TrEMBL record:
SUPFAM superfamilies: DsrEFH-like. InterPro entries: DsrE2-like, DsrEFH-like. Gene3D superfamilies: DsrEFH-like (3.40.1260.10). This is DsrE/DsrF/DrsH-like family protein. It comes from the Archaea. Coiled coil: none annotated. Pfam families: DrsE_2.
Length: 195
């Protein structure tokens, strides 16, 4: 009685076009090496921050986080959009205000905070506190961060929308950056923050 069961050893027999087991093993080793090189961790970590606010109290968090991360060896980008662009503007960054209305940590009630001129008063109070404590100014934090390699990006759509003049940004600020670039940067980052 004859059976049509294939001989399993026939599959292992080399044919004229098929590579040998040794050739396949060598190719697997080459591919594993290439994969290891392509996915090797170079030790560098990335942080991506999105800065959307332009008040005095909201300018500090992205700058402090960026400079601190850079000091720890992170590759840092900060994408500034909408009012966050005021932080990168040389003149506007020197006149950022602190809103006293709706801020639950302000030492004045909202009824008083809503009075005309109170934002100026609370801003002056904060500026005095910053000066008395020898806290770095916005300009100093920006310049230090730029020196440490932090990339500050200005949203091109917001530049156009708000009619900013790109020449008025601090030297070293990257302009012409779109949301797609910011998203790609966030996707590649180890830490992503929205401030």
């Amino acid at each position: 009685m004859s059976t049509d069961t294939p001989d399993p050893s026939a599959d292992d027999a080399p044919t004229d076009d098929a590579p040998s087991r040794a050739e396949l093993a060598a190719r697997v080793d080459e591919l594993e090496e290439a994969l290891a090189e392509a996915t090797a961790d170079d030790g560098g970590k990335k942080m991506s921050i999105i800065a959307t606010k332009g008040t005095l109290d909201m300018a500090y968090p992205p700058l402090i986080l960026a400079s601190t991360a850079a000091a720890f060896g992170y590759e840092v980008t900060v994408f500034h959009t909408f009012w966050g662009l005021d932080i990168l503007h040389e003149e506007r960054s020197k006149n950022l205000q602190l809103s006293s209305v709706g801020n639950p940590n302000m030492p004045v009630p909202n009824a008083v905070a809503a009075l005309p001129g109170m934002d100026r008063v609370t801003t002056k109070m904060m500026e005095r506190r910053i000066s008395d404590n020898d806290t770095a100014t916005i300009e100093e934090l920006l310049e230090t961060s730029l020196d440490m390699g932090v990339e500050f990006q200005a949203c091109q759509m917001t530049i156009d929308l708000m009619d900013y003049d790109e020449d008025n940004f601090y030297d070293g600020v990257t302009t012409g950056v779109g949301a797609a670039t910011a998203l790609q940067d966030m996707a590649e980052a180890d830490i992503q923050l929205l401030v």
